[in-house]
Amino acid sequence: MPNRTVFYVSDGTGITAETFGHSILAQFSAKPRHVRRPFIDSVDKAHKIVTEINAVAAAEGRRPIVFITLARLDVRSILTSDQCKGLVMDLFQAFVEPLEREFGLKSNHRVGRFSDVAKSQEYNDRIEAINFSLAHDDGQSSRNLEAADVILVGVSRSGKTPTSLYLAMQHGIKAANYPLIPEDFERGHLPSSLTPYKHKCFGLTIDAERLAHIRNERRPESKYASIENCRYEVKQAEMLMKRSGIHWLSSTHKSIEEIAATILRDVLSDPTS
Amino acid sequence: MPNRTVFYVSDGTGITAETFGHSILAQFSAKPRHVRRPFIDSVDKAHKIVTEINAVAAAEGRRPIVFITLARLDVRSILTSDQCKGLVMDLFQAFVEPLEREFGLKSNHRVGRFSDVAKSQEYNDRIEAINFSLAHDDGQSSRNLEAADVILVGVSRSGKTPTSLYLAMQHGIKAANYPLIPEDFERGHLPSSLTPYKHKCFGLTIDAERLAHIRNERRPESKYASIENCRYEVKQAEMLMKRSGIHWLSSTHKSIEEIAATILRDVLSDPTS
């Protein structure tokens, strides 16, 4: 799909439009050019965007795809009018009306989902979770582990840190993480500071070959990165996790989003919030 | 809206369904109960979810709202059939068909947007950006700053760290951050290690009262957290940022999502990717 441009137009950050657009376009193996246009919250700005969309349409000879999340009706109507030469995907309209009927309520046309939640409890919890996860990254602190919602364990570079930060940022979950090291393998059990919290431990493992590749980028030619050492550590860590009876999975072919969704399901016993 | 349950049902992580659902429900000031059901990728699992939805409908006497992102037609048809007593919001159907016509292509019904991208270049760039942002948090390292896409500056606790991590995680942007400290105010210019990179610096400021509140949670009764000191630091930092001619904004009433969207627009000169 060459020469196709996709616009994300929102009166807020545009995150919803973008998340949704990426998902839909993944159904087409499309690699279009993405143009993000957040904070379009006035009629003037809407007219400017339409001009930009029409210029792209003329230059490329194909309609741009335009995902919109616009709460204000006067702004929205400019994008959805015949003036606009894009193929407009109006995310709100398709779903707001059936919900208004279902709830027997009018929608409030509130602009920007993230805007008034900025200082909400939910938002503050997310920021606090990020700080917690940073302070408890890589076994830095065993203090206050009772406050953790989940404790990730695994060998160095198995994906613990990005997963912890993702859980905190996206879901407001306090995720500590703890490396499994040779001393743990010799003792044959989880670090003793984790023993009281075994029910909230979750293990990550990874293919030894993939691990060696990742570690070699950091410390080329080291024992740490050698395939023999990676095979040893991975095998020991998996034995230890099996013996401990904790949930665990391999991060080798999984994204942090998938690992996080699994942890939410298995450890944090959805339904949540 | 009491006693209303919202399901997010997906064959992948459910992030798209959830992001979208939260956005739509924000239009109704709704505070429903959220139930996340990821990885629903077989007919058996689909039938189980329908049973669960119907049990909730019977117990609550109201239809649950069900946001679905299901690529497989056999799985999807179970959720959208009359058997299912929820109000089903089918995110793909409404938009995939117009796009198939526009592109002259059939969609590939690929399950899980994050699944096969896990080891893609884009994914690896995001993980690398997270590692970069962690290594360059709070001025920890001035090495390799030329590789930064953006460098956030501001007084301690003005929101630099969560914003850096968000930019890395969500957008794959290498965001370093650097604290502004009394020595910088005395010298009256940005830290000298940043001088060559002024074009990619972005400043964060914050109301002194809000800053004092945040700092007091960390170090109660300290000079660091006192309102006088916070007023001094904020005033000096704002003067310094103005004098330097860098872009900056106040994080006081903004979420990290909004700050990130502004940085993408102002510093990283969208269109991106």
From TrEMBL, chains A, B:
Protein name (Swiss-Prot/TrEMBL): Putative phosphoenolpyruvate synthase regulatory protein
Catalyzed reactions per annotation: [pyruvate, water dikinase]-phosphate + phosphate + H(+) = [pyruvate, water dikinase] + diphosphate; [pyruvate, water dikinase] + ADP = [pyruvate, water dikinase]-phosphate + AMP + H(+)
Keyword Transferase part of the UniProt annotation: yes
InterPro entries linked: Kinase-pyrophosphorylase, PSRP
GO molecular function: ADP binding; ATP binding; phosphotransferase activity, phosphate group as acceptor; protein serine/threonine kinase activity
Family per record: Belongs to the pyruvate, phosphate/water dikinase regulatory protein family. PSRP subfamily.
E.C. designation(s): 2.7.11.33, 2.7.4.28
Keywords: Kinase, Nucleotide-binding, Serine/threonine-protein kinase, Transferase
Function text: Bifunctional serine/threonine kinase and phosphorylase involved in the regulation of the phosphoenolpyruvate synthase (PEPS) by catalyzing its phosphorylation/dephosphorylation.
HAMAP family to which the protein is assigned, alphabetical: PSRP (MF_01062)
Domain of life: Bacteria
Residues the record lists as binding ADP: G154, V155, S156, R157, S158, G159, K160, T161
Lineage, uppermost ranks: Bacteria, Pseudomonadati, Pseudomonadota, Betaproteobacteria, Burkholderiales
